[in-house]
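testing teh design pipeline on a random one, pls ignore if ur not involved
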C-alpha cells in the first residue's frame, strides 16, 4: 500500500483547453498520465493537489473525473486549485461524486483524511500572485483558518500537508502558512502550481523542520510522486 501525490493535471476532456497546445512536457500529457499511473493498484491512494480540470462546473468536469477514476482503482483525495472553477460546496461535490459512482473520491477541505496513522491535511493555500491585484485579507485569513482546522483535526498524529500554492518560492514566503506547518510539526509539505520556467524557482528539501516537495504534473513527468508506504497494520 502506497500513498502518492500529484498536482495540476489540467484535464479538459470535455472542453477545449487541452494543455498539449503549450508543447514541451505537455505534449501527450493525457497518455503520459495513463502510463504514469499504470503501476498503481486498489491498495494505493493519491492526493491530487489542485487544478484537476478546466471544467467550469461539476457536469462539465465529469469526463475528467471519470478519467482520473479510471487511472487506478484506489482512493483519490482532492483539494482545490486556483483553476478548479467547478469546485462548489462539500455536500454538493460529494453528492455529485456519489451519484456518478465516483465512490473513491474524497475531499481535503476543512478536514483531514487518514492514511494508516498518518494525517493528510491541506487546503488551497496562498501565493504572491493573489497579492498582485491587491491583498484580499478576508480570503487569506479564510485559507489560514482552513489549514489550521485541518491540522487541528489531525490531533497528535504524524502530519503531511498538501497545498496547491507553494508556501515557499524563490524571493517569496507565505510566513503565516509556514508558521502553521512548523507549529503543528508537519513532517512534509507537497504542492503544485509551478510550471515551465518556474520550476527552477521552486524550493525543495528541508526548510526549518519541514520537507517541501513540488509535485506539479509537468514537473514530475505526470508520474505521481511516492509519499509513503504502509503495510496495512
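output:
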Amino acid at each position: 500500500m502506497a500513498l502518492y501525490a500529484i498536482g495540476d493535471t489540467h484535464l479538459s476532456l470535455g472542453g477545449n483547453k487541452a494543455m498539449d497546445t503549450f508543447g514541451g512536457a505537455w505534449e501527450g500529457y493525457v497518455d503520459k498520465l495513463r502510463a504514469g499511473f499504470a503501476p498503481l493498484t486498489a491498495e494505493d491512494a493519491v492526493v491530487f493537489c489542485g487544478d484537476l480540470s478546466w471544467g467550469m462546473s461539476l457536469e462539465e468536469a465529469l469526463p475528467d473525473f471519470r478519467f482520473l477514476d479510471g487511472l487506478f482503482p484506489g482512493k483519490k483525495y482532492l483539494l482545490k486549485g486556483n483553476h478548479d472553477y467547478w469546485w462548489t460546496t462539500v455536500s454538493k461535490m460529494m453528492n455529485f461524486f456519489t451519484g456518478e459512482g465516483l465512490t473513491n473520491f474524497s475531499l481535503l477541505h476543512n478536514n483531514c483524511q487518514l492514511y494508516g496513522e498518518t494525517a493528510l491535511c491541506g487546503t488551497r493555500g496562498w501565493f504572491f500572485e493573489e497579492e498582485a491585484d491587491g491583498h484580499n485579507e478576508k480570503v487569506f485569513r479564510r485559507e489560514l483558518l482552513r489549514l489550521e482546522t485541518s491540522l487541528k483535526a489531525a490531533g497528535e498524529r504524524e502530519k503531511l500537508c498538501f497545498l496547491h500554492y507553494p508556501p515557499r518560492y524563490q524571493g517569496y514566503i507565505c510566513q503565516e502558512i509556514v508558521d502553521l506547518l512548523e507549529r503543528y510539526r508537519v513532517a512534509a509539505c507537497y504542492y503544485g502550481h509551478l510550471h515551465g520556467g518556474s520550476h527552477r524557482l521552486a524550493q525543495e528539501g528541508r526548510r526549518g523542520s519541514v520537507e517541501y516537495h513540488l509535485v506539479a504534473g509537468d514537473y514530475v513527468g505526470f508520474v505521481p510522486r511516492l509519499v509513503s508506504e504502509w503495510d496495512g497494520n
